[in-house]
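A favour, since you know our structure tokens better than I do. What I am after is a single protein written out in full by you. Could you add the entry underneath, on a fresh line?


***
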Amino acid sequence: MAVAGTALLVSLGGTGYAATQLPPKSVGHAQIRNGAVGNLQIRDNAITTGKIRNGQIQARDLAKRVIPVLPQGSLQQTSGDPVAPGAIGGVSAQCPPGAHATGGGGGFQGAPDVNDRVVDSIPVGDERPPVRWRVTLFNGSQQPRTPVAYVSCTT
């Protein structure tokens, strides 16, 4: 019983020493074994772009799906019904299943006209995070034109 009690005190003492005597931020890369820190040890949103140095994420990381990417790229495009001259029309583009919108925009097919106007360019729908992006446009030209919406998606 005495040996067991002594062993308990020694084991707790080491942990107590580490918790109370080590200076802040004294454990770094050299003290952590490879594979010791995984997804379960990292809080949600703890790693931000400000904590990643340029060049730290390589193509091989993307190939291993360390960072989620869409297989066919992340830009989806949709064309709408032609908009008459002097009229307003719109179209929405949607992300594929399992992805959500990070941004979007649009315009008319073909060359721009100086009188064209963007009425709105916004995420739409009840889903959170959003999965669709709408662009509403004023056709300032003399011909009917086809609106196009783009949505940038990620998983």
In short: The CA atoms of residues 100 and 129 lie 6 Å apart.
